[in-house]
Structures are given as C-alpha cells and as structure tokens.
Amino acid sequence: MAGSRRLRAASTAVAVTMLAACEYARLLRPNALKQLTPEMVALVNELPEVDHQNEAIVGRLFAHGGLTRARVGADGVMHAAIAVPENEYIWKPAIVVMPRGGRIHLDISNEDTAHHMAFLPNKGERHLLDLPPKTRGRATLELDQPGLYWFGCPVSNHAGRGMLGLVIVKGTVDEEARLDRPRQKRP
C-alpha cells in the first residue's frame, strides 16, 4: 500500500514537472484562458491549414483581429461581416475564410470616429470602399481561385498601424498551376 502511494506521488510529481516545462501549460492560466475568444480559437485552429511560409506572418499580423468563416447563402453567394472597432486600428475579424472560390458580399462597418477605407482584392484588380466615420458599406468581390488575398486601409498609415486583413480562399489548385516550394530552413 505504501509502495503504491509512493509510486503514485512520484508519477504525479513527474507529470507536474513535465507539464510545467511544457510551453502549452502557460495557456492554462486564467488570464490566458480569458483571451481565448471564439474568434481567436477559430484563428488558431485555421493556422495549420495555411501553407508553412505564410503561417508565421498570418499568425503575427492578425492575431488581434480574429477570424470568421464566410457563410454560404441559398444562392451560393458567400457573406461575411467585418467591423472597425472604435479607437482601434484593426479589422475585426481580420481574416475571412471562404470555403471555395466565388462571389462574396462583405458588409464592413466603421464604428470609429476616424475615416477609413477598405482596399480589397477583386479578380486580380482592386476594389476601394470608402468608410466615413460611423458608417457601413458593402463590397461584392469575385475571388475565384484558391489562395491568400490581402486587404488593408490605405488612409494615412492605418495599414502600418494594424489595419491589414486577409481573405483565405480554400480549394485545390491544378497540379500544373501549383507553386510548390521546398521547405525552407529557418534560422
């Protein structure tokens, strides 16, 4: 009986030591857990599906805005909503995931007192949506190929302050059209 208690205590001590040394154990603290909003959980879950060269930059640039998945309407057109929160130079969410290529309606609201614009991708061209303070606008985009499509606010230095966003269009690319790169060595 005493031997099994010692064994249990020793195994518990080993488990606690291993868990304390683990990077993920720090996420179990209450102040870290309260930061795991549904948008942040969606972002973390999506990152493994982004190609490795871009994964790090996506995680660094957009962790503050979160992620949403476009809803597909009955007519096949996708829909997503984005906001510019008051006194924050971010898109919320900053990443929109489309399940496939096609048409998407973006409803963008500017809740801020500053003037913003959305410089959006559209069939290899750009679409500019003007967003005066406390207004909303709608952009219809055609993104028919899988890939990463960046957008931002071209006003002053808003993009440099964090107003960058990303539309991830999922899907497969024909073998002959792929731009596969070998894994790169990291310093």
Ordered list of secondary-structure elements with their pairings:
Blueprint: H1 2-21, H2 30-33, H3 38-46, H4 52-62, E1 67-69, E2 71-72, E3 78-84, E4 95-98, E5 102-110, E6 116-122, E7 125-131, E8 135-143, E9 147-152, E10 164-169
Parallel strand pairs: 1-4, 3-5, 4-10
Antiparallel strand pairs: 2-3, 5-8, 6-7, 9-10
Q: Would you kindly provide a written description of the structure presented here, covering whatever features stand out?
A:
The chain has helices at residues 2-21, 30-33, 38-46, 52-62, and strands spanning 67-69, 71-72, 78-84, 95-98, 102-110, 116-122, 125-131, 135-143, 147-152, 164-169. It is of the alpha/beta class. The chain has two domains: 1-35; 36-177, Cupredoxins -  blue copper proteins (Immunoglobulin-like, Sandwich), CATH 2.60.40.420. The longest helix is centred in the first third of the chain and has 20 residues, at 2-21. The N and C termini lie far apart (52 Å). 20% of the residues are buried. The mean pLDDT is 80.
